[in-house]
Each structure stands twice: as structure tokens, then as C-alpha cells.
Amino acid sequence: MSYPFGKYEFDDITEYMAAKRDQAKINALEDVGKSKAQIAKNKKEQIAREGIKFETVVGKDFLKQLDRDSFTHTEDPDDYLPKKHVVTRGEKRRRRAKHILLIPLYLILLIAVGAGILWIVKEDRSRKDMEELQRRVMITPTAIPTKPPAELQAVRETPTPEPPTPDDATPTPSGPKEILPRFKELYEENNDLAGWLTIEGTVIDYPVMYKEDDNDFYLSHNFEGKSDVNGLLVLDKRCDRTGDGMNMLIHGHHIRNGTLFGGLTAFEDEAYCKEHSVITFSTIYEERRYEIFAVFKSSVYDEDTEDIKFYDFIDIQTREQFNEYIRSALVDSLFDTGVRPYWGDKLISLSTCEYSKENGRLVIVGREIR
Prior knowledge:
The chain is α+β, with helices and mostly antiparallel strands. It has eight helices and ten strands. The relative contact order is 0.08.
């Protein structure tokens, strides 16, 4: 005698009754989940959690079906598996056009990355070249004699003579000047070298170049004459490169990383300026020091401005010209340094770009310490 049970058939009543028990266990499982795979997974977890054991082929086949459902997700794969997207001709054209439009952006990005890498390489090379120049002039300069404060004050209080006229002018010593030992080697390599500018305690420690007919060349070239976006410091072409003129005007780029004359912006702070008040400018012939007496902002290329035309006070010939420049610089100075130049002092003016106004310049002016 056989005992049918759904698609199954059993030979004895004991297996039949066990099959019914298996089916009851199956029917008691919860249908939790949104997909067949989730339901199968949850049922398997419930069986394991509750320690359910199946006795017959009914239960074993049920477990096999749960395994299949877990891996195939569903009998209809389109319900749960990613559907194959049919790309139309129009969409193909749109994608192609989009890719074509992106090509210029990719090129721009590639050029920008390449330019950035090149800039970093050039900056590093420029820095190393400058460090090598600085190393080669690191010879202790000749001590510069200075007057003690009491004697200096006496000199300040002594009436200064009127500027000499051609009839009573003091004769200028004749004969060539001798180049300082620490500059000889560099001068032989490039005789456009005019000297070296240093402000102790700052990054400003650079060669100063000079071309009698060109202020721009060394603003975009290095000591070897090779292209360099940072350039070097430049003594204005109207100055006397020997240092015998009344006012030495030196130009330099305002580099945003603080190198070259980018460091001059720190001198807008009164305390900083007073802590770093001495400028050393050594021409190739002579070591000289200057103390800062004014820090002011001006502009160039505008004849209508009331800003100080500091660039017109290089070849100072008269006391009136001297006083006009000193008076204007002191009036426009960002703060009072307490230093007062007097007729006969030699001056130095450092100029760099300043961005609070159009074609702005930040200018620092010092008088020679004698």
C-alpha cells in the first residue's frame, strides 16, 4: 500500500506522517522580505536559529529550493537582475557628442596639470640657483664704520651747507674703483651685477642687477640670463651703479610666496619694520647700510594722481628736490619711524607691486648710516 503526498509517494505510514510534519514546519516559516532571494535567506536563518530539523525528502527538497532561490534571486531574473539597456542611435550620437565636447576640457586639465608641474620644477630650480649664489657671496663683509649716537646727533644738529655749485664743487676722486673680493667671481661671470641687497632677519638676500638701457630684462631672467618668471632685483637704469648717486631705486617682483620683494609687505607693520630697520646694500665696490625712515604706498603710470612720484627722485641735485622727496615720504608714511634724513644723506628706495590700488607700489625708503 502506498501513501501519496503531493508530488511525493511513500511506502509506509511512518514516512507519510513524517512528511506531513515536515510540511507543517515549512508552512510555519515566516515570509519576510521584498524579493524571493530575501525571503529564502530569511527562512534559512530562521531554520538555523530555531534548530528546525527535517525528516524526509520533503524537507530536504525544500532546503535545496531555498539554496537555489538565494543564488538565482528569482525565477524571473528581469525582476531583480540589472536589465540590459538597449542603446538607440540617437543616444549613441548624444554620447559621442558629449565625449567630443569633453575633449577640450580634458586638454585644458592636462595643460593645467603640466603647467603646474613645470612651475614647481622651475620654482625649485630657481630656488636652488639662488641658494648657490647666496652661498658664493657668504664672505663676511668688511665692517662698516658707524658714528656713535652722540656723535651722530651732533652731526644732525650741525647746519648743512648749500649744495655745491660748479665753481665750488668738491673734485671727485679719479681712478677706477676696486671690486670687492666677494663679488669678483660673480662679476666676471655676469658684469650686469650691480651689488647685493640684504635685510637681516628676513628672506631678502639677493643680487641686484643693472642694465643701463633696460629695467625689464632681469625682472624675468635669472643671473645666467635664462628665462625665470620670478626674475631678480633690478637697480633702476637711471641710477649710478657705483652708488655715488643721491638715491638708489631698486625694483623687485612681489612674489606671493614671500620671496624677492614679496617680503616687503611685512614692513607695513610698524613693530616688524622697527625690528628689521637696517637695509644693507653692497655695491660691487662698497658695503653700505641704510636705516628705514618711511614706508608708503604710491602708484605709477598716472600723471593725475597725487601719489608721490618716487621714481622721479633719483637724480636729486638740489636741497629743494631732496626736501620735497623727504617731506612727501614722511607725510605719506604708514607710521613714524622717528628717523629724519638731512641734506647730504644718500638714500635707498625699494619698490614692489601693491594691490590696494591700480598700478600700486609699496615703497620703503632708507637713509645711509654714516
